[in-house]
Amino acid sequence: MSQTPDTRCHLPPTSPANPTGALVFDRVVISLDGAPLVSLNAQVAPGEVVSVMGPSGVGKSTLLAYAAGFLAPAFDAQGEVRLGDRRVTDLPASARRLGLLFQDALLFPHLSVAGNLAFGMPSSASRRERREAIEEALADIGLAGFGERDPATLSGGQRARVALMRTLLSRPQAMLLDEPFSKLDAALRQEMRDLVFQRIRDHRLPALLVTHDRADAEAAAGPIVELAAATEAPAGAAWQGARRASR
Ligand SMILES: Nc1ncnc2c1ncn2[C@@H]1O[C@H](COP(=O)(O)OP(=O)(O)OP(=O)(O)O)[C@@H](O)[C@H]1O
């Protein structure tokens, strides 16, 4: 990650030109009911995972909601989010090409596993392309032959893997992860971390990970941005407290 100057956020020096495909939070400042809440000024390179940590209520999920286009009316935002040379904050949520993963693997209960995987795939794909991509994705996560299963019959770990693949099959250009491992037990958590971070690297996607668990952030092997609780100024990326995890 590199960051552009923002005196309010005490950030490090300006980076060179943005690489194509970087996810950029450009002087984003979000207020809640008129009071500054959180700010972020950051550039996430393709294949890099930047972890955002901080106390409950500091505004971590709000930053993701702003990027994804789901900010509730109580919030007001300044600054923009860019993906490569696209200003995603000018686009409707459906056109932003952002892959979202949450703590609950939200699969559609009325669709089969294959139906869930097909859900976000480009409409230009032929039936055969869809079927092949789904079979490949299921094999990739050790669930070959599970396509016709009802998602309710899957274990938590299996659901999490299907949710990841559904997101990747939608061909996102960046990933936003909000506590995606927090409901998994320790062994599954490790397995999902490895899978998610590996796929993010394979697909060269910039990713922002919100987590309370330092082990998640360390496994992500990217920069860690610590948000401090808001006082008078919005909680910002306190670079002094941030550090680059060992790779
Ligand atoms: N829809 C909403 N309308 C009004 N206020 C909201 C809304 N959603 C969240 N908030 C408030 O915005 C603030 C930031 O919430 P946010 O969920 O971003 O925090 P967080 O850092 O992700 O917290 P946690 O770690 O507990 O998930 C909180 O004070 C929260 O109560």
Automatic annotation (TrEMBL):
<feature type="domain" description="ABC transporter">
    <location>
        <begin position="22"/>
        <end position="247"/>
    </location>
</feature>
<keyword id="KW-0547">Nucleotide-binding</keyword>
<dbReference type="GO" id="GO:0005524">
    <property type="term" value="F:ATP binding"/>
</dbReference>
<dbReference type="InterPro" id="IPR003439">
    <property type="entry name" value="ABC_transporter-like_ATP-bd"/>
</dbReference>
<dbReference type="InterPro" id="IPR003593">
    <property type="entry name" value="AAA+_ATPase"/>
</dbReference>
<protein>
    <submittedName>
        <fullName>ABC transporter ATP-binding protein</fullName>
    </submittedName>
</protein>
<keyword id="KW-0813">Transport</keyword>
<keyword id="KW-0067">ATP-binding</keyword>
<dbReference type="Pfam" id="PF00005">
    <property type="entry name" value="ABC_tran"/>
</dbReference>
<dbReference type="InterPro" id="IPR050093">
    <property type="entry name" value="ABC_SmlMolc_Importer"/>
</dbReference>
<dbReference type="InterPro" id="IPR027417">
    <property type="entry name" value="P-loop_NTPase"/>
</dbReference>
